[in-house]
Sequence to fold (188 residues):
Amino acid sequence: MIAIYIFITIVIAQRMAEVMIANRNAKWIVSQGGYEVGRDHYKYIVMVHSLFFIALLIEVSLSRNTATTWAIAPLIVFLIAQVGRVWALSSLGRFWNTRIMILPGAKVIAKGPYRFLRHPNYVIVITELAVLPLIFQAYWTAIIFTVINALILSVRIKKEEQALQEVTNYDAIFEKKKRFIPFRDSKN
Fold:
């Protein structure tokens, strides 16, 4: 059981480090003339992600499930998502953020996983919230937070795309790229 708590603590520490990076990047964007969009819903994103880890820890503690061999599948998916996370974040560099930070006139970055789809980082977050609890058989956490996350992302993505369309070359770069599933013919 201790190993489970250590694993979850490492993931939480990773997220806290990312928030520090995001804050540093936000200061840089503002210093370049940028601004934040969607501040009104950001607090809900923070709340959902915080409650996700609390719920995960509670469900894991209360269920006291034993490790199963099939848990290796969601663990592998989670670890692959971590590689994707690093790829997405490093591709955006100083433009990556947990907030919607807009720098008017900036050229939208379309390298790394952004060559294939508009929102690879959101695909990764969706994957993580779905599979991390499955590693520990925390089914309620997986279901509830996957649904809540989808609702919040439906608001966030609209605001983000609208803001980027207004002051950057977003449409020119991403007009032929899908939001979440690369190489898909129908609009997603």
User: Anything to note?
Assistant: The domain at 2-174 is CATH 1.20.120.1630 (Four Helix Bundle (Hemerythrin (Met), subunit A)). Residues 130 and 147 are 9 Å apart (CA to CA). The chain has a mean pLDDT of 91. The chain has six helices and two strands.
